[in-house]
Amino acid sequence: MTKELFTDPRITVMGLLSEVYAGLNERFQPLLAEHKLSLAEFDVLIRLSRSPKYRLRMSDLAAQTILSTSGVTRVVDRLERDGLVTREACPSDRRGYFAVLTDAGVQRVEAILPAHHEMIERWFTGLLTPEQLTSMEEMLHTIRDAVRPRSTAGVSGEVESRCLERPAATH
Predict the structure, then answer these.
(1) Is 97 a domain residue?
(2) pLDDT (0 to 100) of residue 151
(3) What is the total count of domains within the chain?
(4) Do the domain assignments include residue 54?
(5) Deepest of 27, 41, 49, 70, by most Cβ within 10 A of its Cβ?
(6) Is there a contact between 154 and 92 (Cβ–Cβ < 8 Å)?
(7) Which DSSP letter does residue 84 get?
(8) Where are the alpha helices (DSSP H) in the chain?
(9) DSSP per-residue codes, 133-144
(10) How confident is the model at residue 168 (pLDDT cuts 50, 70, 90)?
(11) What biological process terms from GO does the record include (predicted)?
């Protein structure tokens, strides 16, 4: 093999992305543990807290996280057991369920966010100029939209409104 295969900048960028993700997770883990949450649980709570009416269909929640549909089910089970999330059936689709953040879930997220914001600033956004941060956000959106096209499902509330509409009666 030629050395160029090993020094290709595409390999470097992927390696750096993996290292940054792992490093940030290591930094944030103690804060989450202090609040008795795993990274996956916190991710679900954040996604719900940023969604219309604090709710997402379970399938949309899976599309927005790094979890499979069965993984989301297990995380929501734990959060529901802890009183942070509830499930609500979709009135017009017997197969559909929403994960809904409870008041206790909102309080848990609110308790974590000040320290979480400080850590994001210290270990991530504060290391970048405003221009770099804007460029990074644009780049990440471009890549995310290509590799995870369903990741914004349910964000605008459109899926919820379709679910809540009752099908027209047919005669």
Answers:
(1) yes
(2) 80
(3) 1
(4) yes
(5) 41
(6) no
(7) S
(8) 3-7, 9-34, 39-49, 58-64, 69-81, 103-123, 130-147, 158-164
(9) HHHHHHHHHHHH
(10) very low
(11) response to stress
Has residue 22 been placed in a domain? yes
Which residue bears the tokens 């883990």?
A: 29
Integer Cα distance of 116 and 35 in angstroms: 11
In a domain, 157, yes or no: no
Counting Cβ atoms within 10 Å, is residue 61 exposed (0-12), middle (13-18) or buried (19+)?
Answer: buried
Angle at 120 between CA 119 and CA 122, to 5 degrees: 60
Nearest to 97 by CA among 156, 31, 163, 166: 163
CATH of the domain at 31: 1.10.10.10
Q: Using CB atoms within 10 Å of the CB of residue 56, give its burial: 0 to 12 exposed, 13 to 18 middle, 19+ buried.
A: buried
Contact status, residue 111 vs residue 37, Cβ threshold 8 Å:
no
For the chain, give the longest Cα–Cα distance: 71
How far apart CA 94 and CA 96 sit, in angstroms, is 6
pLDDT in tens, 144-165: 999 988 887 766 655 444 454 3
Angle between the 103-123 and 39-49 helix axes, to the nearest 10 degrees? 110
Give the count of alpha carbons within 13 A of 165, CB side only: 8
Q: DSSP 3-state assignment of 165?
A: coil
